[in-house]
Every structure is written in C-alpha cells, then in structure tokens.
C-alpha cells in the first residue's frame, strides 16, 4: 500500500491515497472509467490515461481549466505550483487568475488529468502529448519548442558558435552549452540586456512571432535582421528554410504569460430586454396552445395515411414542402414539428409493404388528455431528444441529404445543450430576455473547442436552435423563460418561493448570491434569492448556479468579486496527505469547497414531477375549450377560441378551415358537406348539430346547401365490376355518357340503369365528383359504404430512444458499489504475500500456484485460525482473477468464505482455485 506521507510516484499511487468521496467525484465526471468496472486502482489509472478517455475529459473542461492544462503542458515536467501561477498570471500578476487557479487545478486533479503535490505537479502523459506544441499540432498558447528540443538535431559546433555569439563562455559539450543558453533565456535581467542591443528590425521580427505561430520561413541567405537573431539562438532552425522562436524567448517577451489572454471568469449572460413576467407567461402559453394545435393539424392531415417513407428512410423533400404548405410554416419549422411528434411517440411508419407515415395509437390517448398535460409530454420529448431537426437538409459524412424522420439526425450533445441554455435563462430574473450572443459566449467558455474557434460549430448551432425551438414550443415567451418553463427544469419559481416564504422558512442562498460566487441583488445581481426549501423535485438540492468555479451568469464579470472559497490560495491539508502550496487539494472537496457548477439534468422520476408541476402552472393560462360557433350568412362559421373535442372533430369533417389565428374560420362547401354525408351523417343530423352548437340562427343559404347536397347524395351508386354505376334515373346516366369529361372513365351501358367502367371504384368516385355529381360507394350487397376520416393508425410504436453521448452518469448506488469493488480488488493485488518455501514472494501480477493437497490444507488451517488468504480463481467462462478471502467452511469440494474483493460471502469450487498463499504479516 502507498504511504500517505510519501509523495505519489504514479497516478495509481495518487488515486490510492484518495478517499471514497474523491473517487466518487472522479467517476461521476468521467463515467467511461467504470464501463466496465476496473479490477483495481492500477487498472483505473491505466484507463484514465488512455487517449480516448483523456480526449473526452479535455473536451468537457471549461476554458480556464483547459488553459491551465495547456500551461502545464508547456511547463517543466514536473512543475511547481508557483511555476504554473507564473505562466498563468505573468510577471506582473493577475488577482483574478490567482484567485481562480486553485479551483481550476482542483478540477484537473478531480478528473485525474493532473496528479502530484504542489511541488511536483504532473500532467498525465497522454494529456501532455495532446497539448504540447508541435509543428503539426500548434498549441493555443502559440508557443514553440524549448531550446533543448529545437537544438536536438543541431551540430555541437554550431551550438558552441551560438553560445559564444550570445556572450556566454564556451563549454566542453553540447549538453552544457544548451543548458547555458536556456539559463540565459530564462534570466529576465540578462535577456533584457541582450535584447536591448538588438536592431529595431530584429525586434520587429520577434514581435510578429511572439504570440504565435512561432514558425517562420527564411531563405538560404537570411537578411541581416534575421542573421542577428539566428547567431544568438533567438531563432533556431528546425528544417531547411524554417526557423522557430524558442519557448523560453517567447515567454520572456510575453512577460511570462503562456496565453495572450486568460479567462478566469465566465462571461456574464446579460439581459437584452425585460418584460413583465405575466406578459412572458401569457405569450408562452399562447405559443404552447399554437404548438398543440399545429401537432394536431399535422397528424390530422396524415390520418388516412401520410406521406410514403423513402427507401432510405425519412420524408421526401416534396412531402416536407407539402407539409409546410399545409401547416403554413417554413420548411425548417415543419421539420421541427414532424420530428417533435415523432420524438413524442405520436407519429411513426406503419410498417406495411407500401410503407407510409401515420399517427400511432398513442396519439389517440394523447388527444384525450388535458391540454397542459399534452404540452408537458411534447416538452419532455423535446428536452430529451437527440434527434435534431435543425440538420434536416444538410449533408451526412457520405454527402447524402439528411431527411426529416430519416436516419442520421441524432446529435448526442443536443439534450445537454438544451438543458444548459434553459438553465442559463433560468438564472436571470423572471421576465429577462438575454441576448443570443451572451448565451453563446457563455457556452463557448464552458466548453471551448481545442482546435480553431469557429462561429458555426455544432454546439453553437444547437444553442441557436434551442432558443428558436423553445419559443416555438412555448417554453419561453419573448425570449424569456416562462414560469412553466422554469418548473419544467425543476428550478424554483415565484410561486414555489412564495409558498416557502409563507411557511416561515428563511430564504437560502440563491444562484446569484454569495454562495454561488456572485453578488446579491444589492450589488447589481439580476434576481432575488430563492429558497432551497422551495417546492419542486430538486428545489432543496439544486440551484441555478450557472458556472463552474465562477460567479453566476447574472453577476460574473471582470469586476466581480472572486468566490469566497477561492480568494485565498492558502489552505490546510487533510490528515495523512502532504501539502506544499496553494494548489494541493487531495481530497479536493474536503479542503477547497467548489462554487456550484451547472446542475445535472433531472432523473426520470424527478422529470415526471417537474413536468406535472409545469402542467399545473400552464393550465390556468390556456384558453378554455368552447362548445359553440358563430354561423354567418356567407357559408362560414367562426370559432372564437379552441373548441371542445367532439365539436372540433365534427366541424372538421363538415367544413374546411379557411383561416387560423385567435379565431378559426370554417367554410362550408358542397364537397365538405358531402364528406360529412359520406361519414354516415344524414341531413337532419347536420341541421340538428348546427342548431345545437351555433350561437346565431342557422343561415338559410347553409340550410339550402345541406339539403341540396343531401338530395343528390347517393343518387348514383358505384360498385366493383371492375366498377359500375347504377341509378334509377336513366336520364342521369345519359347525361354522364354524353359528358366529354367521362371519356377517361371508359363507360358503357349494361342496362338502362347500369353503366360499367374500366376504372377502379375509387377513381370512378373521384371522376364523377369532379363532374359535379354526388355518388356514394356501395358494398357487394348493395349497402352504402360509410368512410371514416380517422381510420388509419400504425401498430403500437415506442418513441425513438435518445442516442447517449457516452456512458450515462452513474447514480450513487452504482458509484458506491464500483468504488467498493475497486478498493477490494486493489487490496487483493497489493497485499503482501508470504513466500512459499524457497520461492520469492509474489507481487500480485501472477496467480498463486499450489497443488490440490496444499490448497485444501491451507484452507482448512485458515478456517481454524481465521486468517485471510490470497487465491487465484478461474470461473466457468475461463476468466482468471485473484481474490482475498477469509475461509469460513470447507466441505464437499467447496470452500465458503467472505470475499473481501466482492464484499460478500461466496462459495468457490476447490477445483477452480489455482493456488493459495498466506498474506504477509503487517
């Protein structure tokens, strides 16, 4: 076992002296490390140093923590805390950097990217390889190689010439010459004197290279200004025609800074405008109602079987355009609504031979729910969906067009970005609408790109789409987060805060208060404090602090005071660990409390509670459904608001929607009345329906229209011959035969009252209706066929599963079990063993080997003495492992023992035990 008082020599030893809480922080922040659970801490350290895991961890650092790692990559290995601080704050110092650096270094230690004490800080090897500058992969620091690295291939004679020209005494070998040159370049006083003698043109060359890139091109015969620099080693050749500015020289010219600009504090999310919370809530509620109506209209339009599914999957461009026209929205918005319905499980393909999109049975259940609950289901699906409508119309890796409802639309980062954007909005006062650029700037600080910064990277586009989609869905109103939107996130609302205050509880620290690293409202904060006892699924355990290691979004800024827990770099080390300076934080969370980071997404159970709370807040804001319409003499009906379900369904069959808005206008036409008659309604039923639900008398033109269409309806009958037409009035049939428009139907008379056609019945029906007749379809028995508008549904379908962005964050139970197993396995692999006879003591890297007789005898003796043993075991699948057990009983070819590795009592077959060894005495 590692001695806690001895500085660790490896990452494995560093992990070995951490307590369970520190390992919990590590495994929660890097869940890929326990997929699967490592056997011991050595394997955990090895896995933490793999390239894929390190890249994933670096991509999740905020900008200042990443800058700290980049500074360590260009520092000596190992480096001291003071050296790191000098690289970050420069020779002149920076109070904000000094205050924030302990937290950034603690974050790197928590995630096992940095290990060691403050006088021997080490970046894990893989991270150093990724972040160290090279010609192929320049560092964001803009620094080049060190003098030692740049002169690695240079001849000793040339090195001695540079040393002599620089005013240094010649040395007996190249190594000492490089060391002398390095010492000169790192000595501020001597370097200042050397550069004071440089020509002005030479200093201009250095100024162009100082902040990067450090490489430049020279000719075979350099100019005098370049020759002066080359002769003194201020520029060193790296390849024919290429020179580089050594790292030590650049750091002197930069006054010791590794970065041109450091960002210790996150940029604030600033309100662009402020509205009344009531205006925001009512605007969002109105848009939420529009969202429900749009989804219903979409699926109603596809009730009888929607567009065909492309061979490659998805919706064709033509069908998407038709859907956009039907919904009266742009094509990207139409793609959003179709994807939202699909994510909520309301829409799917029917799976038939002629595959088409249609509503699912879940849609019928959804329609029967209250409006607020229907909205909550859509909002939940949107928050969790990885399918991203914004990429529709783009190209995939194989240059194929991405189609709505098709494959290739999953973006694993989408749920996290949506949650983070809405959380930033929740950190503002109610009614405050932020500027999009301030939100994007904050997200770029929290997850910076390690490569060149671009304005159109995926996370930026996801954030922009989130702001747009939240407004369409009614989560936000006028750019500000609504009350039901806050409840959907589990954030405290004004109502919950009022209830908490009414119970007489003292208000707790808010997201913008000092506990979150911000300044209260009195100091320019943007919102009132909220109580941790507020109702909601996580109101007692979550806050809306917006930045890891920095003030909240509403108060952070260059002039904001540093968090109380990062103002002083001094701290005391926990018992059993060494402390050499302000960066020591092992176990990190014990001695250096962290400002609250971004809240984690809610668990499924918490999200269900939050959705119910959001629905309760939204319900009073939605308009009540009406049971009446206003009939007008121009064959229209005006619905002054949303209609109750039976009235809306029947009116949708009897009339066509002419316009939508605050009031919906329906128009009655012969075709729409015939549609109602085809659905099995009689003229008297239609008269009674309109009289019952109209607040105005039924206009005479409308009554005449219904009676006229009903009188003609069913006068002609169409059946299957291939198809036939029969009518008791042979004059009507004569009129049809004489009409030129009937030529395409290829009719012929079979009897005075019967015509036969070569068209199918459906085509014959459409042709006769186009000619102005009102035929009715009949069955083989001669009965009128009644058609229903909502006949087609898919088989039961489940909503698409989100594609996770790596392993899910483990819960507390899994973390506790994993840490227990890792520590037990580490105990088994590191516990000293007694040597067997003349054989040397085993190291734990190989399995013990003993005969069956020796194994049985040792087991029986351990039962009597109560000692623990080290065994090798091969399971039924052939996997070998080593375990530390305390035998309890040996009988029948089995040993029953307490397994320290698994922390439980187990029974092992003796024939599967490869060998046994006693543990060495302490």
UniProtKB/TrEMBL annotation:
Q: Where is the composition biased (Gly residues)?
A: 515-527
Q: Which GO terms describe its molecular function?
A: helicase activity
Query: Which organism does this sequence originate in?
Result: Streptomyces coerulescens
Stretches with biased composition (Low complexity): 496-514, 528-559
Keywords from the UniProt entry? ATP-binding, Helicase, Hydrolase, Nucleotide-binding
Task: Answer yes or no on keyword ATP-binding.
Answer: yes
* UniProt superkingdom: Bacteria
**Limits of the WYL domain:** 854-916
**Name the UniProt record assigns to this protein:** Helicase-associated domain-containing protein
Matching entries from Pfam families are given as: Helicase_C_3, WYL
Matching InterPro entries: WYL_dom, XPB/Ssl2_N
Domain (Helicase XPB/Ssl2 N-terminal) spans: 629-751
Q: Where is this region: Disordered?
A: 132-151, 258-277, 494-608, 826-851
